[in-house]
Design goal:
By secondary structure, this protein is of the alpha/beta class. Helix content is 31%, strand content 20%. Strands 1, 2, 3, 4, 5, 6, 7, 8, 9 and 10 form a 10-stranded mixed beta sheet that branches.
Amino acid sequence: MTDITTNRRAFLRSIAGAGTVLLAGCSSSGSTTLRMGAGPQGSATFASTQALQKVVNENAENVEISAQETSGTGPSNFRLYDNGEIDAGGFDNFAAAEAMNDSGSFEENSVDKIPYQGFFYVLAHMYVVARAETDIQTTDDLAGANVWLNPPGTSVRPPTDAVFQEAGLYDQINLFEMGRSDLPGALEEERVDAAVVYGVNYKTLPGWVSELDARFELRAVTATEAFRQAIENADGTTFEEVDTYGWNQDIGADSAATWNLGAQFRFGDGVSTEAAKTITRIAYEQNDAIIEANAIYPEYSEVSDMTSGLIADQPVHPGVAEFWQEEGAWNDSWTTGEL
């Protein structure tokens, strides 16, 4: 099992020089600069990190964010953090559990450390849509069809694979692997029949799905009882029936059976208590400004809303924990990491 930052490498680093643990990096202004893994352009994480960067950099005196485009908030960002290439960023809970347990994507290539938990910023509701001109009506019809499940390395792919494997469909579909930017062309050329899409935070669709909405006539694929049960049974996934929000077109269903993925902004052990606390405080106090910069971003009506994605058995960054404690949103059953 992988330790969270309190592993032998972190221990040796702290002995070698405690001062190196305090700052992620210094800018010319003397403030701490955090390299935050932001996922790929067009993703909900990229938009959320950009918005957080804008508001934090406008309001903080002691810390600034440098958003780094990465291939995904799943295994990719955990490996970048483990390699010392980012200090913080967007990390999904499915990959966090796998990284902690050396399972799934990390079974043969584990990481030595993962960053401490921070605060919730996205909940993705995933389901399948098909080109309207196909005969695909239910998930049973996906067998033998050309299906796109999102690119490998993106955060939504591992839980999607888990659901399709649990449903017995993974080996029955013709799996098409391509980037999100290539999907519209594949749909237009009828090389792809169905695709997994998602809505974000009960609000809207990410940019790449909105493009599909504008260009193609699509239909929601009805989940059979067996597929719904597969969502319930797959490790690390959560079932929810949600409204098919965000679409400009009628996709033929008012609701969909979804498998959900939560993600948090996490902070590593090289991020000081003060820096993480400042970012958390600004994210809460300037929540409206972040939403103005990115409409997808969630509303924090109460400080407790920031804790929505917390994994009970993983520690919280000391700076985030300190802010929650001061605001009365801390649960004594949670643990705090050490720097």
